[in-house]
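Field reference: sequence -> structure
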Amino acid sequence: MVKVFDLVELGESLNLMDVGAAAISEVPIYRSLIDLHMGKLHAFEGDRRQIAGLVSTYGDQVSIFSDFLFDGTERDLYVAGAATGMTSLLRPSDRALKFFNGFEQFGEVRAVERVKTRRLDDIPELPLLDFVKLDIQGAELTVLKNGVTKLRDCLAVQLEVSFVCLYENQPPFGELDLWMRSQGYLPHCFLDVKRWSIAPTIFDGNFRIPGNQLLESDIVYIRNPLALEELSSLQLAKFAALSHYCFKSSDLCVHVLLELVRRGELDGKVQEDYYNFLRREGI
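Structure field:
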């Protein structure tokens, strides 16, 4: 048993999945759950250049899969430089890359490899998932559509979405949003919004200084918070943990905790106790 912020008992660890798990430039939002031994990470990373970094970071708290998730077919893998994060199962769009400063170099294809992909639902050793992060260069929607069974109880999904598609046949943000809503999710927060400068204009001699053009963003979708009655009490406890530790959303956390109060699972003073916990932690 693990106590979530000293108030809620979590009867089992959260199953976290990260597809495209290489931590090139950021600390994932689920990291604190692993550090607190509340979560188990299932990491998919087909780029073997990134495996050593995952093992070094997470040790025995991660299960690593080298599979390429997609739709189960054979695909061409377009290999870019390891540091760019732009290796993809979709062909880069020359026209889109040329639109942005620097992206012709970032998206340069250094090799093309033929790989066998797998469907998320066809991996028996993977448990049902509570939280999923997908950052796979345009393949996100295909993976989701081929993983509805594994995602049956999933409480939140973090997606990289594109406003200007850098790959051929890449679904744009609107298409992903409509599909997520059809599956019972609502957008909760943007973790970042990346803008970029349009070629050939460069600001202050640095092509990384953005103009106004939207490029991409990470967005978190959550199970519909207006329909918490559809979730089990264990799911609600996990939802509270995700809200607090991953999203830093204390208001969502209280909303979930009050559903547990209504069910008689928690004492009515848990809201006040949680606010006191936040004050003690300086949050």
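Note: The chain has one domain: 2-281.
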